[in-house]
Amino acid sequence: MPPTIAKAVPSTYAALESVLVSEADIKKRLKKLGAEIMELYGEQEITAIAVINGAILFTADLLRHIDNPIRLDCIRISSYRNETRSTDKPQVLGNLSLDLDNRHVLLIDDILDTGKTLSLIVSMIQKLHPASVRTCVLLDKRGRREVEFEADFVGFQIPDKFVVGYGLDFAERYRNLPCIGVLKPHLQNPPEWA
């Protein structure tokens, strides 16, 4: 007899109110972003730092469009937990392992909204004496900015709606969607199935 599931988890696609950015548009934009990054860095080596878990898919696909020598590290930050709005102060949950002294750092994140997370990480990185620090985000939600911060490379500008997919989650779900969509309002509460 198969195991029973206590509570059903909503289907990933059924959870979307609408699609903001299609899978095809993401693929097209990543190719252009890769070209923009290569144009800026020339032939220099890049130390890419992914903010995980959200930026894993974006980082992996983006780096495939960059021909430069690349070193990769990851940092884990908690800013949403099971909420649809970021918490007061992001928490660093892990440390970097690569030496950043005199390196060209490209910080990659899934979304720039309040600006708190990226400004915190950039400040941390600058204390490690890199040659340069630039930021690349898949999504920019300017309507939510609380800290003055602009990314150097932006995939898409989006309205102030709670989005999931392509790495972005709600309570660690929906990251596997190949598109970026607006989560249905009735699902934007701490889940019963968490």
Protein model, in words:
By secondary structure, the protein is α/β, with parallel strands linked by helices. The protein has a domain at 24-158: Rossmann fold. It has 3 helices and 9 strands; from the N terminus they run E-H-E-H-E-E-E-H-E-E-E-E. It has a 6-stranded mixed beta sheet with strand order 4-3-2-5-6-7, sandwiched between helices. It has a 3-stranded antiparallel beta sheet with strand order 1-9-8, covered by helices on one side. Strand 5 (104-112), helix 3 and strand 6 (132-140) form a beta-alpha-beta unit. Helix 1 crosses helix 2. The longest helix is centred in the N-terminal third of the chain and has 19 residues, at 23-41. It is globular, with a radius of gyration of 17 Å. It starts with 15 loop residues before the first strand and ends in an 11-residue tail after the last strand.
